[in-house]
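Hi all, posting the design record for the shared folder.

TITLE: backbone redesign
STEP: 1 of 1
STRUCTURE INPUT:
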């Protein structure tokens, strides 16, 4: 019971610390990553649909900044914009101008850079752009440096604390439950991002409000770096869940049965007493005693034989249910011719001997 309680507390602390570390890691590698901004900008400018959406407001601002007496047409402005975006060096400088030295995102700085590159690549428009008092401006979207610095400081510390809590739970608590709970958390966290990133990419154009291609490219590029990490976390969770079934169960001590045995039912007690009384009243089986000495032998006498076996007459056996015919003569007629004695066995009507005895 104590081991399970220790396992539950340590795993809960490890999961909380691990979730905070994962959230900070995702933030540092998406919105707070200066390199990601440059990568996203290049991806937007490479995508035809997203590039047209970005150039539309810039084109209108350029046309509004050029006086009408200069006679600059829409085709010339479009050619100038395409020339700027086709120059890799100009595009890199525009993309890098989004990020300041502190890591903030400044779209107004990118607008100034775009004006400078436009004047450099289109000398015929340079005097016009320099004379226009209107500056190209876009909304500033800046990340909080304090939040980014805090995330950068605590992400790996929280990850280390989470790992120590899981290790302590594995050693001090129930190893099977620890591995299984880590696996469940890892699979849920990683799989949520694995399926969440494509869903966010699909959903972004539908809630962007007119910049469908740009929103799709931005979300895709921002979520792409986390995909391999999320997939690795999911695989680690599956391995932990499968390995938890290989960890032997902890030995359980047998609990002594201190509770009194239940009394027998009245009917069962009466049956037991009746069987005991029958056993006491029944005689013990006879056992012959071994002889202790010589037994006296009684004196035998010779029995006189009154008739020879060869002179014995056999009587006919009567069948059951039938009456034998009366024999002629009486007992006096069955006297022995030699001795004159009556043969009693001659008149004995004995049953037929059984053949199966």
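Okay, here is what came back for every position:
SEQUENCE:
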């Amino acid at each position: 019971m104590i081991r399970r309680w220790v396992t539950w507390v340590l795993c809960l602390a490890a999961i909380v610390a691990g979730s905070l570390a994962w959230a900070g890691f995702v933030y540092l590698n998406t919105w707070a990553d200066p390199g990601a901004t440059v990568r996203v900008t290049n991806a937007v400018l490479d995508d035809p649909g997203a590039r047209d959406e970005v150039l539309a407001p810039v084109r209108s601002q350029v046309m509004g900044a050029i006086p009408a007496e200069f006679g600059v047409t829409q085709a010339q402005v479009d050619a100038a914009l395409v020339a700027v975006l086709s120059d890799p060096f100009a595009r890199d400088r525009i993309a890098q101008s989004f990020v300041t030295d502190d890591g903030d995102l400044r779209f107004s700085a990118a607008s100034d850079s775009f004006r400078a590159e436009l004047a450099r690549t289109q000398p015929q428009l340079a005097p016009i752009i320099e004379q226009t008092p209107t500056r190209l401006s876009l909304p500033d979207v800046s990340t909080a440096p304090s939040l980014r610095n805090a995330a950068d400081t605590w992400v790996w510390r929280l990850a280390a604390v989470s790992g120590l809590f899981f290790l302590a739970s594995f050693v001090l608590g129930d190893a099977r439950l620890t591995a299984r709970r880590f696996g469940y958390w890892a699979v849920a966290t990683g799989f949520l991002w694995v399926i969440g990133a494509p869903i966010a990419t699909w959903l972004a154009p539908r809630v962007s409000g007119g910049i469908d291609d740009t929103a799709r490219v931005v979300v895709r590029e921002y979520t792409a770096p986390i995909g391999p990490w999320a997939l690795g976390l999911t695989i680690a969770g599956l391995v932990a869940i499968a390995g938890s079934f290989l960890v032997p169960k902890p030995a359980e001590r047998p609990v002594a049965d201190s509770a009194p045995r239940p009394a027998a039912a009245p009917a069962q007690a009466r049956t037991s007493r009746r069987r005991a009384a029958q056993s006491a009243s029944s005689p013990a089986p006879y056992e012959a005693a071994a002889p202790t000495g010589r037994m006296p032998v009684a004196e035998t006498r010779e029995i006189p034989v009154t008739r020879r076996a060869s002179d014995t007459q056999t009587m006919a056996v009567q069948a059951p249910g039938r009456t034998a015919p009366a024999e002629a003569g009486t007992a006096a007629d069955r006297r022995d011719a030699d001795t004159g004695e009556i043969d009693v066995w001659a008149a004995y009507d004995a049953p037929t001997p059984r053949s199966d005895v």
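COMMENT: The radius of gyration is 58 Å.
Let me know if anyone wants the other runs.
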